[in-house]
Amino acid sequence: MRVGVQAAAAVIVGSAVATILFFGSLRDSNAQSNTRYLPEYTADGQLLLPKNFHEWVYVGSPLTPNALNGGQANFPEFHNVYIEPGSYAIYKKTSEFPEGTILFKELQLTLPQENADGSRTEASGRGYFPGKWNGADVTVKDSKRFADTNGWGYFNFNHHEPKAPTAKVKSKDECAYCHIANAKKDEVWTQFYPLLDNKDAR
């Protein structure tokens, strides 16, 4: 009888320990998911190139090649766009971009064209294929710092490699005006990114 009591006690203690470990790991997981990487600035207000952006949430890659735009596309590359994970977690819950949101657009050239429309043929067929990196643009939400451009700041870290380590905010007539006039939601081109535009795609 005493052995049975001891065995039952061991099971209860074991279950309690497992429960504590489970909720502890859950708490740690939630803490990690709520951690955000926020914009970093120099003393004179330049934005530092965000760190580890390739590990962020990828949302899409629009493409406007030169060959389809009279040879002079404004951005003749794939626009590989990432959102900072902590901000994306909040956006999923609220459908609003929180203060401090960073959207990182890495530009990537297409491989050399073989046809008049800029396309080429690879093993998968004829199309446009990503080539070398070609700089980056970054957008930051800060309603106070960037009040003149509807709460978003726009930064260019070169349209070539290597990317600049810092960047000054662009004037309203350089970037913001186009976002204000054409972007679907809060100056973000969510119409091109199902992950941000369609809750069912999340």
Automatic annotation (TrEMBL):
Name of the featured protein: Cytochrome P460 family protein
Gene3D superfamilies in the cross-refs: Cytochrome P460 (3.50.70.20)
Domain named Cytochrome P460: residues: 50-190
InterPro entries, per database record: Cytochrome_P460, Cytochrome_P460_sp
CDD domains: cyt_P460_Ne-like
